[in-house]
Amino acid sequence: MKRSVTLTHRKLFAGLLGENGLDCAIVLEPSRGNLGAWFMGEDAFHEGPGKGRFIPVPEPFDRNNVYIVPAEGEIKKYSQCEPHPTDAFLFPVLDGEELKQICPSGRIGIINKYALDASLRDSIAQVCPGLELTDIGAGFDRIRALKSKEETEEVRESAAYAERILTFLPLALRSGVSERQAVCDIRYAFYQSGAHAEDMSQQIRISLTSLPQGAENAAGSYTWPGKILNEGDRINVSVTGFAPNGYAFALGRCFTLGKASDETLKAWDSAVKAQEAAAALIRPGKTIRQIQKACGKDDEDWICGIGLSRSEDIKDIPLEEGMTVAAGPAVKTGETDPYRCLDVYAVTADGCERLGNSSAKLVEL
Fold first, then answer.
1. Rounded to whole angstroms, how far apart are CA atoms 246 and 248?
2. Distance CA 217, CA 336 (A)
3. Residue 39 pLDDT exceeds 80
4. Tens digits of residue pLDDT in 47-89
5. Helix extents (H) in 25-178
6. What is the pTM of this model?
7. Whether the Cβ atoms of residue 251 and residue 238 lie closer than 8 Å to each other
8. Contact predicate 9/57, CB 8 Å
9. What phi, psi does 254 have (nearest 5°)?
């Protein structure tokens, strides 16, 4: 991520703290939502002795640690218990006097409050009695979802990166290959092209289902290594992950091995039209929950904010220009698995713009 984008994030955060009369905030479980990258950009991925700035992402997260983020300056990481001597320089013990110095107002913000367990709450109360915790999670979710034009271009590049991998799919989706092998080949293509992830199996998520065209779902699950792809199969593929620039992408398309049947073409056309109907509702002032309800699919998570996290929690926050969302309603025909045309959109002043350029047309291999 560019340093200018990181500085914009810190200014937005400083503004949020100022609006709430706060000097700093406690950040818990930063792995949820890739918050380390949002606050510090590339610095989040380089740990070193004495830096005192590192927030581990994406996993694991040590629940004994507390992260203090001020309006400006150094991000610090603390431990609520005595750390191992070899880790003392990375995990200084939470100190009440220091908390009082950085929180002269006697109040401190908190992000991801759900992760505040009793032991941490009691630890803070013990070292700094009377310190008031102010939940600023909703406000933070909003500013995290807002993106400058520069950052929107990063999301656009991430979408273009995912679409470039589409050119590899004809090599992975071929008759005689198991679904598992196809998924492994697709994931490896992302790895080879520099996808940003520590754990490819977790950070590059692939949903791949295949069936003979017109067939219903199998009564039972296929044994390892999964169904074998055959000529005449219809294959639904959805992929989410992180591009080399650190931003998430989401893409869903449909393929057939051989000529597509009229039934398959009709089903995929319904999926494309469902996405177009949803995109027509993506505009400033609308919430994701309202869009889901208007599409008659309010019980499914098929649309969400996307950026440095694959899923930004903005379901009940009115959309604003500069936010980016991934949208792909699931369309089922009978008992077959759902078709999903999935893309990333940027909210504009009067609607939205699809950030990718690839055709949504079904691909016959």
1. 7
2. 5
3. yes
4. 433 343 444 433 334 545 678 888 887 777 776 666 666 665 5
5. 35-40, 96-102, 118-127, 137-145, 149-165, 169-172
6. 0.86
7. yes
8. no
9. -120, 140
Which amino acid type is present at position 347? V
Nearest to 250 by CA among 325, 145, 154: 325
Identify the sign of the CA torsion 171, 177, 180, 181.
negative
Reported as half-sphere exposure (CB side, CA atoms, 13 A), residue 207 has a value of 15
DSSP 133: E
For 89, other C-beta atoms within 10 Å of its C-beta total 13
Element (H, E) at 339: strand 339-340
Residues 6+ apart with CB under 8 A from 215: 336
Report the range of poorest mean pLDDT among 207-221, 313-327, 342-356: 207-221
CA atoms within 13 A on the CB side of 228: 5
pLDDT of residue 59: 37
Contact assessment for residue 331 and residue 271, using Cβ atoms and an 8 Å cutoff: yes
- Over residues 178-209, the pLDDT tens digits come to 998 998 899 888 888 877 654 544 567 888 88
Amino acid identity for residue 292 in this structure: Q
Distance CA(209)–CA(211), nearest Å, equals: 7
In 3D space, the residue among 202, 244, 236, 240 whose CA is nearest the CA of residue 341 turns out to be 236
The whole-angstrom separation of Cα 73 and Cα 24 is 10
| Amino acid occupying residue 98 | E
Residue type at 212 in one-letter notation: P
The two structure tokens encoding residue 94:
């939470």
Q: Is 166 helix (H, G, I), strand (E, B) or coil?
A: helix
- Dihedral Cα 102, 108, 112, 118, nearest 10 deg: 100
Max CA separation in the chain (angstroms): 72
In degrees and rounded to multiples of 5, residue 77 shows phi and psi of -120, 130
- For residues 23 and 13, is the Cβ–Cβ distance under 8 A? no
How far is 296 from 145, CA to CA, in rounded Å?
25
Let me know if 37 is exposed, middle or buried by CB neighbors in 10 A (0-12, 13-18, 19+). buried
